[in-house]
Specification:
alpha+beta; Beta-Lactamase; Arc Repressor Mutant, subunit A
């Protein structure tokens, strides 16, 4: 089965809104089919003491996870810290990544490789207003083609979208669920991509003030004070998709276009 066929089958389950446990099983199975031994899709927090356990989903060896947590390695983890500053995926063997590491961070990678966690690939995840996160995978061998990693990138975005929606929904049990108008959803999706009122208006062919008013109206209806809050509500209710937000951003990103060229 081709990598993107695996990714498409997984995304289809996300679109069908299967339960989160079922989607997690599908994610793990799909990564195995793609030749991945381990993965960690999580917020950049202590994996054993997260403030939100729903945002940690990983299959790293248990002894490594305990050591990583108890030693405080997560505070300076090179993959976490590098992903905090990046919008595009990266390989742990990339010279550009290795060049910025401190000696303690190099030591962490060496220790991880000794536990079978080497030659990984990481997709940075920057949820609007949320804790920085990432999805890393560790291959079974070094012969995985780059097309497979692009399939991993797609799956990671949709997996984290489902985790985010479930987590926010659980943490906001009193939030009111309501339907935004189509124009409000369009404005919120663009706002989630970091667009200001002027840019939103230009893209939707409406005035800057009209774009501003659509977002303010959505805020008032939910009784929230900030754009971040209304975006999180829209994501958690499924009215805008985190996967679509990430996809829209990466489609405009030159480094990813270069990565696609390498796969052809």
């Amino acid at each position: 089965m081709k990598p993107f066929d695996v990714a498409e089958a997984f995304v289809e389950q996300h679109v069908r809104r299967v339960s989160l446990p079922e989607l997690k099983r599908a994610f793990e199975k799909s990564l195995q089919d793609l030749g991945m031994r381990h993965f960690a899709c999580c917020s950049h927090v202590d994996p054993l003491n997260p403030r939100n356990a729903g945002m940690v989903f990983q299959t790293y060896p248990g002894d490594w996870v305990r050591y990583f947590s108890e030693s405080g390695r997560y505070r300076i983890d090179p993959v976490f810290r590098y992903a905090d500053e990046r919008m595009v995926p990266f390989f742990w063997d990339d010279p550009e990544f290795r060049a910025v590491l401190t000696p303690p961070q190099v030591e962490i990678l060496t220790e991880a490789e000794g536990r079978g966690l080497g030659h990984g690939y990481t997709v940075p995840i920057h949820p609007p207003g949320g804790q920085m996160a990432s999805c890393s995978v560790v291959p079974d061998s070094g012969v995985i083609d780059r097309g497979t990693y692009q399939a991993v990138f797609t799956m990671a975005c949709f997996m984290f979208d489902a985790m985010l929606q479930s987590s926010v929904r659980a943490g906001c049990s009193e939030a009111r669920v309501m339907q935004f108008s189509e124009r409000e959803r369009q404005c919120l999706e663009l706002a989630a991509q970091g667009k200001d009122d002027w840019s939103i208006g230009s893209l939707l062919r409406i005035s800057e003030r009209t774009a501003h008013n659509h977002i303010e109206r959505a805020k008032r209806r939910l009784g929230v004070c900030t754009r971040v809050q209304v975006i999180v509500h829209a994501l958690s209710d499924g009215q805008i998709s985190f996967g679509d937000v990430i996809k829209a951003e990466t489609q405009r990103n030159p480094p990813l276009r270069e990565l696609r060229k390498k796969t052809n």
